[in-house]
Amino acid sequence: MKTISYKLLIVTAFILTIATVANAQVTREEQSALTPDKVLTDLMAGNARFAAGNIGDLEIKKRIANTADGQYPKAVVLSCLDSRVPVELVFDQRIGDIFVGRVAGNIEDEDQLGSMEFATKLAGAKLVFVLGHTACGAVKGACDEAKLGNLTALLARIRPAVDAVQGFKPEERTSANKEFVEKVIEQNVRQTIADIRKDSPVLAELESSGKIKIVGGTYDLHTGKVTLLK
Questions:
Q1: How far is the C-alpha of 79 from the C-alpha of 101, rounded, in Å?
Q2: What is the pTM of this model?
Q3: What is the mean pLDDT of residues 137-149?
Q4: Residue-range domain boundaries for the chain
Q5: pLDDT reported for residue 17
Q6: Which of 35, 39, 92, 99 could form a disulfide with 46 if both were Cys (CB 3.0 to 4.6 A apart)?
Q7: How high is the mean pLDDT of the chain?
C-alpha cells in the first residue's frame, strides 16, 4: 500500500511539473527570443493538451499581479465571435499569453488590422493566427445571403470565400450542405489571411522579414482540435 502511494505521489509530482512548465509565464527576454515557429509549436501543443483534457492548473491571482504592469504576449489570434470557441482555453494559454480579436466570421477589417499591427510591431507578438471553426453561423449566413441590419454588411465580406469554392451545383451551395459550408469555412480563413497581407503593409513586411508568421486553422466543435490549413 505504501509502495502504491509513493508511486502515486511521483506520478502526481511529474504531472504538476509538466503543467507548470506548460503554463510558464513569458518574460520580455523570452518573448524576444521566440520565433514564429516556436510560438506555433507551443500553441499546437497547448491545443493537443486541451483536446486530450490534460490542461494544467494555474495560479490565476499570481498571473494577474505579474501582468498588471506589462504584457509580453506570444501571438495574436483572430477568431470568430462564437461562444463555443474560447480561444485562450482552446490553445491552453493564460492571462498575458496571447492577444485575441473576435468578430463573427473571423474576418479582417481596419480595426482588426490596427490591433494586429499593435500586437506585433509594438507589443512583440510573433504569430498571427486566423482561427475559423466548424459549423460557423456567419459562414452559413453568407452562404444563404442572409440579411439583418449591420450583419448584412459583415456577411458580404465573407461572400468572396463563398464564391471562390467550386465543385458544387447551384442547389448545393446553401447552409444545408455541410460539406459546402466546411469548404467555405476553410476558404474564408485563407481569404482573411490573404486580405491581411494585402491590406496591411506593416504585417506583410514583418512576415517577409521573418519577424512574424501569419497562419490559419480551423477548430472542430466536436473534438476540440485545431487543424492547421496548408
A1: 6
A2: 0.84
A3: 98
A4: 2-228
A5: 47
A6: 92
A7: 90
Phi and psi torsions of 149, nearest 5°: 45, -135
Fold of 2-228: Beta-carbonic Anhydrase; Chain A (3.40.1050)
Q: Kindly report, residue by residue over 31-62, the tens digit of the pLDDT.
A: 999 999 999 999 999 899 878 877 666 567 78
Written as one string, the DSSP assignment of 29-87 is HHHHH--HHHHHHHHHHHHHHHHHT-PPP--HHHHHHHHTT----SEEEEE---TT--H
Terminal Cα-to-Cα distance of the chain (whole angstroms): 52
Q: How many angstroms separate the CA atoms of 104 and 82, rounded?
A: 7
Dihedral sign, Cα of residue 126, residue 132, residue 137, residue 142? positive
Contact 126, 75 (CB under 8 A): yes
For 123, list phi and psi in degrees, rounded to 5: -100, -5
Q: In this structure, what C-alpha cell is assigned to residue 152?
A: 448584412
Cα-Cα-Cα-Cα torsion 22, 28, 33, 35, nearest 10 degrees, comes to 70
β-strand partners of 128: 76, 214
Q: Could you please report the per-residue DSSP string of 124-178?
A: ---EEEEEEETT-HHHHHHHTT---TTHHHHHHTTHHHHHH--S--GGG-STT-H
Are the C-beta atoms of residues 203 and 128 closer than 8 Å to each other? Answer: yes
